[in-house]
Design goal:
The protein is an all-alpha fold and 215 residues long. 65% of the residues lie in helices and 0% in strands. The chain has helices at 11-17, 21-40, 54-63, 66-79, 83-110, 136-151, 156-175, 181-200, 209-213. One of its GO terms (molecular function) is sphingosine-1-phosphate phosphatase activity.
Length: 215
Amino acid sequence: SGSSAAAPLPEEDCMKLNPSFLGIALSSLLAIDLWASKRLGVCAGEGSAWGSARPLMKVIEVSGHGIPWLLGTFYGLCQSDSSAAREVLLNLLFALLLDLVLVAAVKGLVKRRRPTHNKMDMFVTISVDRYSFPSGHATRAALVCRFILHHLVLAVPLRVLVVLWALIVGISRIMLGRHNVTDVLFGLLLGYALYSVVEYCWLSPLSAPALFALW
């Protein structure tokens, strides 16, 4: 009847009808992220707006891949005859391995799928690479960039090139459609912070004599 009071909504229905400000903000951010990532994925396929630049983007992709960096660092470590160089290279190897483990753990925890416009034709992938967050290439690029700038004496133009390389690797992930914008931004921040962990845990003949005895 018209005089009877309306029954109150269950608490969970009230929450759905009155979402929190944080929930709205996160949903809006996710929508913007997906929209911007799709718009910027101009090299995601041969028929994309910048499809002709896709081969170049894939070369940049390989330059930030973990396998070339691991093999190159290990080879340099084996060939080096300087104790100072071996110390730097051993810590770079430690940093690269730590990066792989951390990124794989976060990807497995978050389990964010790659953008729908991505083509799964990446260079040497593993099972966890089907996930998108964070970008391992971006994390590695930021980590290696900080490492090189702190431990190699380079002229200013070369230092600028190293920074540009790290940024281009991150941008290429979005252009190829491999990652969303937030995947790359978080990856760059994570790699930047990860270097501080490496510096704090720096391996030396005093802190890790067993490792240096192998070389």
